[in-house]
């Protein structure tokens, strides 16, 4: 094979690998749009748009069989100045740790914000209760789509799933 043809094939292969490892701006835009829907729509609308977006992006949320490494994903800040962050580790093809929180731009997470949790307790749960339940369920099922919503924290479940989607689009560290 001629050297120039080899160079063209190598460049094409390299670009393809780069595209697989680096999310496109279109993928990020779709997640950003879904983020706004989660923050500003009824839960029924969120369910519909979430399903459509995840299908279009073809993300492996039902089986988190990903390359080993540490993953981090976060949404843009919402209307209340919180971003939704998840960090998880995949080892030998299995999810072994997960940490989720919604963090205010001033740096305080909802789980540790006793004032916020006290206000939210009227809904029947708090971030300090719901987020660990979601983390444990994710570790047990290895499937973000199999997690049941905690009563009073349905939007937080979709925020967690969205943060996982952002993390999957990022390279593991």
Task: List strands and helices in order, with pairings.
Blueprint: H1 3-21, H2 25-40, H3 43-57, E1 69-74, E2 82-91, E3 94-104, H4 114-120, H5 127-141, H6 154-169
Protein name: Major membrane immunogen (Membrane-anchored lipoprotein)
Keywords: Lipoprotein, Signal
Signal peptide: 1-19
What does this protein structure show overall?
51% of the residues lie in helices and 16% in strands. With 173 residues, it is of the alpha+beta class. A 3-stranded antiparallel sheet has the order 1-2-3.
Write a compact overview of the structure shown:
This is Major membrane immunogen (Membrane-anchored lipoprotein). By secondary structure, the chain is of the alpha+beta class.
Features:
173 residues; alpha+beta; Sufe protein. Chain: A; 6 helices; 51% helix; disordered N terminus
Determine the N-to-C terminus distance. 37 Å
Total strand segments: 3
Instruction: State Rg.
Output: 18 Å
What is the overall shape? globular
Alpha-beta classification: alpha+beta
CATH topology: Sufe protein. Chain: A
User: Beta fraction of the residues?
Assistant: 15-25%
Going across the biggest sheet, name each strand in turn: 1-2-3
Second rung of CATH, namely the architecture = Alpha-Beta Complex
Protein name: Major membrane immunogen (Membrane-anchored lipoprotein)
Keywords: Lipoprotein, Signal
């Amino acid at each position: 094979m001629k050297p120039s043809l080899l160079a063209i094939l190598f460049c094409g292969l390299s670009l393809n690998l780069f595209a697989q490892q680096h999310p496109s701006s279109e993928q990020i835009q779709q997640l950003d749009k879904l983020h706004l829907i989660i923050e500003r729509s009824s839960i029924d609308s969120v369910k519909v748009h979430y399903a459509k977006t995840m299908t279009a992006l073809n993300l492996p949320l039902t089986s988190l069989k990903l390359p080993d490494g540490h993953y981090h994903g976060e949404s843009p800040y919402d209307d209340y100045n919180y971003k939704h962050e998840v960090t998880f580790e995949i080892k030998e093809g299995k999810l072994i740790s997960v940490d989720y929180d919604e963090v205010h731009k001033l740096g305080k997470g909802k789980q540790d914000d006793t004032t916020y949790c006290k206000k939210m307790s009227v809904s029947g749960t708090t971030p300090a209760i719901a987020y660990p339940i979601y983390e444990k369920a994710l570790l047990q099922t290895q499937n973000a789509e199999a997690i049941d919503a905690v009563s009073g924290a349905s939007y937080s479940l979709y925020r967690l799933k969205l943060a996982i989607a952002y993390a999957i689009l990022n390279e593991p560290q």
